[in-house]
C-alpha cells in the first residue's frame, strides 16, 4: 500500500493516521517527540525536527503524498517536497494561513469580510489614527493559537504599549466586534469541481480555547448555508487542495465575518468522527490522494466537548469515565498524551441526541461527572 507522510504527530496527526490506516494506507509521521500521539498509529516515526532537511528528504523519497497537521511548518520545506512528491495543502496556502496579515488580505481579496484591521509590520505602521480599530485586539501575525499572543486594548496608548510589549514583531490590530456567536465551516476541496463542506459548527470558547462545538449551529439555515458558501469561495480563491477550516463571527445583525483559517482539520470538526459518514480526517486522506470527497451529511445532532488537562486529577490521575462509558450516545476519544497539563488538549467526547439542545444538555451533565 502507498505510504502517506504527515508533518507533525499531535492529536490531529494521530486521527489522520487512524483514518489513513483504516483506508488501507501506510503512514510515516515526522515529529521530534518520541511520545508523539500519532506515533502509536504510524508504520514509521521519523524522530526529527519538522524542518530537518534530511528528514524531509527521507519523507519525499519514501512517501507517495505528504500533508501537515499544523500550519507552522516551513512553507518553503513544503514547496521543496512538492518538487518530488504530492503535497497537500500547498506550501503557498500554508504560508498564507500562518501569517495573519497575508491571511486577512487574502480573505478580503476573495471578496469576504474580516474585522476592520491594521497590519503592523514595523513601528511606523502603528503611528496612524487607531480610532477605527479601537477598542481592539492586538494579535501577533504569526504563531498565536488558543488566544496566545493577543492583547485586548482600549486606547491608542495601550495598543502602542502592547505592541512594544510583544517585542515589535509583526502584528494586526483588529477591531473588537460584538459577537453573537462563533461558527466554523470545514471544506474539503480536491479540485474546482470537487468539494464538500461539513455542516456548520457553533463554537463556544472558554479562556480563549475551544470548549464545545454544537452541530447543527443554532442559526438560521440560510445563514449556515451562506457560511458554507463563503468557505467554499475562499478555498476556490486559494485553489486549495485539502481540508480547510474557516472560523466565522456572527454579528448582532446576523452578518458573517471571517476570523481566521486553518489549513488542516480543525478541533471544531471532531464531531464528524461520530456524526458524519465521512469524517474530516478521512477527507484529508481523500484530498491528499486526489480521491473524491466523501459525503458530509450529518447523521444526528451532536455536541463535542473538549477534554483539557484541567479535568485530570491533581496527581495526574485520569478522570472518572464510568458514567460517560455507560452513556449509550457518547463516544470518547483520548489522544494518548502522557502528561496532563492545564489547557492541554487530552481528548474529547461527542454526544448525539435528537436535537442539538438535548445533546448539549446531556454533554454538560456528562462532563460534570468526570
Ligand atoms: P485558535 O486557537 O482558534 O487558532 P487564535 O489564538 O488564533 O485561536 P483567534 O481565533 O484570532 O485566536 O481569537 C480567539 C478568540 O478571541 C476568538 O475565537 C474570539 O472569541 C475572540 N476574538 C478574536 N478576535 C476578535 C474580534 N475581532 N472581536 C471579538 N472577539 C474576538
Ligand atoms: Mg488561530
Ligand atoms: Mg481561532
Report the C-alpha radius of gyration, rounded: 20 Å
Please report which band the strand proportion falls in: under 5%, 5-15%, 15-25%, 25-35%, 35-45% or over 45%: 25-35%
Give the biggest sheet.
9 strands, antiparallel
Q: Look at the structure and give the mean pLDDT.
A: 96
Low-confidence stretches: none
Q: Note the gap between the termini.
A: 41 Å
The SSE string, one letter per element, is: EHEEHEHEHHEEEHEEEEEHEEHHEHEEH
Number of strands: 18
Specify the CATH homologous superfamily of the largest domain. ATP-grasp fold, B domain
The CATH topology of the largest domain is D-amino Acid Aminotransferase, Chain A, domain 1
The CATH architecture term of the largest domain is 2-Layer Sandwich
How many structural domains does the protein architecture include? 3
Q: What ligands can be seen in this structure?
A: adenosine-5'-triphosphate, magnesium ion
Amino acid at each position: 500500500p502507498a505510504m502517506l507522510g504527515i508533518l507533525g504527530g499531535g492529536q490531529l496527526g494521530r486521527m489522520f493516521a487512524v483514518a489513513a490506516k483504516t483506508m488501507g494506507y501506510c503512514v510515516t509521521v515526522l515529529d521530534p517527540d518520541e511520545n508523539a500521539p500519532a506515533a502509536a498509529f504510524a508504520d514509521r516515526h521519523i524522530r526529527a525536527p519538522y524542518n530537518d532537511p534530511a528528514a524531509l528528504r527521507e519523507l519525499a523519497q519514501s512517501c507517495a503524498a505528504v500533508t501537515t497537521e499544523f500550519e507552522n511548518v516551513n512553507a518553503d520545506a513544503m514547496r521543496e517536497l512538492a518538487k518530488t512528491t504530492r503535497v497537500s495543502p500547498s506550501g503557498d496556502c500554508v504560508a498564507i494561513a500562518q501569517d495573519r496579515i497575508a491571511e486577512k488580505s487574502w480573505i478580503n481579496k476573495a471578496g469576504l469580510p474580516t474585522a476592520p484591521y491594521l497590519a503592523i509590520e514595523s513601528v511606523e505602521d502603528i503611528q496612524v489614527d487607531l480610532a477605527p480599530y479601537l477598542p481592539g485586539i492586538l494579535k501577533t501575525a504569526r504563531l498565536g493559537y488558543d488566544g496566545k499572543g493577543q492583547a485586548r486594548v482600549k486606547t491608542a496608548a495601550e495598543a502602542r504599549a502592547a505592541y512594544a510589549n510583544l517585542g515589535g514583531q509583526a502584528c494586526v490590530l483588529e477591531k473588537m466586534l460584538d459577537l453573537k456567536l462563533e461558527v466554523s465551516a470545514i471544506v474539503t476541496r480536491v479540485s474546482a469541481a470537487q468539494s464538500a463542506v461539513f455542516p456548520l459548527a457553533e463554537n463556544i470558547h472558554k479562556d480563549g480555547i475551544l470548549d464545545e462545538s454544537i452541530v447543527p449551529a443554532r442559526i438560521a439555515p440560510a445563514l449556515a448555508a451562506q457560511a458554507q458558501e463563503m468557505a467554499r469561495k475562499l478555498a476556490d480563491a486559494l485553489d486549495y487542495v485539502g481540508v480547510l477550516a474557516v472560523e466565522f463571527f456572527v454579528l448582532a445583525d446576523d452578518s458573517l465575518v471571517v476570523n481566521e483559517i486553518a489549513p488542516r482539520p480543525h478541533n471544531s470538526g471532531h464531531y464528524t468522527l461520530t456524526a458524519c459518514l465521512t469524517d474530516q480526517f478521512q477527507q484529508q486522506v481523500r484530498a491528499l490522494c486526489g480521491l473524491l470527497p466523501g459525503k458530509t451529511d450529518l447523521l444526528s445532532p451532536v455536541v463535542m466537548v473538549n477534554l483539557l488537562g484541567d479535568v485530570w486529577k491533581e496527581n495526574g490521575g485520569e478522570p472518572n469515565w464510568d458514567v460517560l462509558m455507560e452513556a449509550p450516545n457518547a463516544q470518547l476519544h483520548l489522544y494518548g498524551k502522557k502528561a496532563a497539563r492545564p489547557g492541554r488538549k487530552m481528548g474529547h467526547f461527542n454526544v448525539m441526541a435528537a436535537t442539538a439542545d438535548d445533546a448539549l444538555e446531556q454533554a454538560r451533565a456528562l462532563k460534570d461527572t468526570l
